[in-house]
Automatic annotation (TrEMBL):
This is Aminotransferase class I/II-fold pyridoxal phosphate-dependent enzyme. InterPro entries: Aminotransferase_I/II_large (IPR004839), AON_synthase_class-II (IPR050087), NAD(P)-bd_dom_sf (IPR036291), PyrdxlP-dep_Trfase (IPR015424), PyrdxlP-dep_Trfase_small (IPR015422). One of its GO terms (molecular function) is transaminase activity. Belongs to the class-II pyridoxal-phosphate-dependent aminotransferase family. PANTHER family: 2-AMINO-3-KETOBUTYRATE COENZYME A LIGASE, MITOCHONDRIAL (PTHR13693:SF102), CLASS II AMINOTRANSFERASE/8-AMINO-7-OXONONANOATE SYNTHASE (PTHR13693). Keywords: Acyltransferase, Aminotransferase, Transferase. The keyword Transferase applies. Gene3D superfamilies: Aspartate Aminotransferase, domain 1 (3.90.1150.10), NAD(P)-binding Rossmann-like Domain (3.40.50.720).
Length: 168
């Protein structure tokens, strides 16, 4: 969805404030203006008018705002389920920052090094950043990752995991 500028009218109350803030974060403060006046002749230029009481238009905007969040959630769920299914120890949960628990800091350091050789950049965490015996690799997923990129990362994890005898 390409929007030049948006004028939000009827934006009183918490809903209007939050909507205005979110749209300003996405499209810039100068591209999103909020007004309590529904018939405002001051902003007759290139603004797409969005009245918060126009629920179809509001639903369309809010739905488009959640697309990236939805993709991030799908990417995270895909990565987590595949990694668990091949035998990696990952903390339960849904955050897009996924710790791959390895325990031994030397193994974690070697794993990070080998993944980089496979073209996968991850961060290893060891004592004193995490408790002794809780070394891990942190994978941070993004909505911008394609399924192919995630599959490549999983394949690299599996290859290195087998070489280091972390998984069978």
């Amino acid at each position: 969805m390409k929007l030049e500028k948006i004028l939000i009218t009827g934006a009183k109350g918490q809903l209007g404030s939050v909507l205005t803030q979110k749209l300003q974060e996405k499209w810039g403060v100068n591209n999103v203006i909020s007004s309590d006046l529904r018939l405002n002749t001051e902003f007759n230029g290139n603004y797409k008018k969005l009245d918060v009481t126009d629920f179809d238009a509001l639903k369309d905007i809010v739905t488009k705002l959640t697309n990236l969040r939805d993709k991030l959630e799908a990417n995270t769920n895909f990565f987590r389920s595949k990694m668990a299914s091949v035998g990696f120890n990952i903390n339960k949960g849904t955050p897009p920052i996924v710790p791959i628990m390895l325990g031994d800091p030397k193994i974690a350091q070697e794993f990070v090094k080998r993944l980089l050789e496979e073209g996968i950049y991850v961060i290893g965490f060891f004592f004193p950043v995490v408790p002794k015996g809780k070394a891990r690799i942190r994978v941070q997923l993004s909505a911008k990752h394609s399924k192919k990129q995630i599959e490549n990362a999983i394949n690299a994890f599996v290859k290195v995991g087998k070489e280091l005898k972390i998984i069978g």
